[in-house]
Amino acid sequence: MNRYVPMLAIPLLASAVPAFASSVVPESWTPVSDEVLAHATGKYAQQNMITGFQLVMQSQWQMPTGASLMATGVLGVNQNGGGFQVQTGAATGIIPGLVNATGPLTQSVAGAASVLINGVAQITQVAGDANNALNKAIIQFGPGVSIASLVPVGGQGANNSQTTVGNLSASVAITSAGMQITLNTPNGNLGQSIGGGAGAAMNQIMQVVQVAGNAQQVMNTMQLNLQTSPLTTAGLHQAGIQSALANIAAIRR
Questions:
Q1: Strand order in the sheet with 132-141
Q2: Percentages of the chain per state (helix, strand, coil), in multiples of 5
Q3: Given strand 119-127, what is the order of strands in its sheet?
Q4: Residue 37 to residue 85: CA distance in whole angstroms
Q5: Alpha-carbon radius of gyration of the chain
Q6: What does UniProt give as the signal peptide span (predicted)?
Q7: Alpha helix (H) ranges present in the chain?
Q8: Residue 213 and residue 65: Cα distance in Å, rounded?
């Protein structure tokens, strides 16, 4: 009997990550209570259905000085005959603004970057007023987006990118150990990482927001597209039998 691996399906916004806005949290979003999450269940994918994946990580920071930073990393893997085809993309950019960014006089944040986890973690540390911060992770089944639509021509096929302007820096690194994105400013740090071994922590997905200042707009987004092959007739039969058995078990209760 084939083994099934649980995978939580999270709805995906159809559009790409938008440009900076006055607020990075859409007004239409409704928080989900802990009580609802405690009873949430996942959907299942047959292990041999997964034929490839595409990982897209983007980080953005907008400062009240007019300065803005962005970083994008893309990693795609698809089956190609008996082997695999790998695509990468990395791009960073900084707009310095009208004046140089200055550090906060009283606010400070520390500690998040040194947290060690085995699994998934989203950490937000904010000190100051009128800040907007968002960590968002999305998993879906379906085709990925075009790398060309996310990464400029110069960044397509690249494994790393680094941009520094004054005291602002943005970087992307894609290695055999995973992918890492970092934005650094005097008002804090923004980072995302996925570690898969080769010297990095195993099975680690991390999103970190550290903001010390006022009126900062920051956002981390991570999107994983799992590409699947069609279910075989045997797979459909097996899924139907499992569904029937689950319904019978529920009735007996």
A1: 83-95, 68-80, 50-62, 217-228, 132-141
A2: 15, 45, 40
A3: 119-127, 204-212, 188-195, 178-185, 168-175, 160-165
A4: 37
A5: 21
A6: 1-21
A7: 34-38, 147-150, 233-252
A8: 12
Domain encompassing residue 223:
50-97+105-252
pLDDT tens, 122-151? 888 888 899 999 999 888 887 777 777 788
The pLDDT of residue 220? 96
What backbone torsions phi and psi does residue 85 show, to the nearest 5 degrees? Answer: -105, 125
Which regions in the chain score pLDDT beneath 50? 1-23
Tell me whether residue 195 is in a domain. Answer: yes
Total domains in the chain come to: 1
Strands (E), 30-102: 43-46, 50-62, 68-80, 83-95
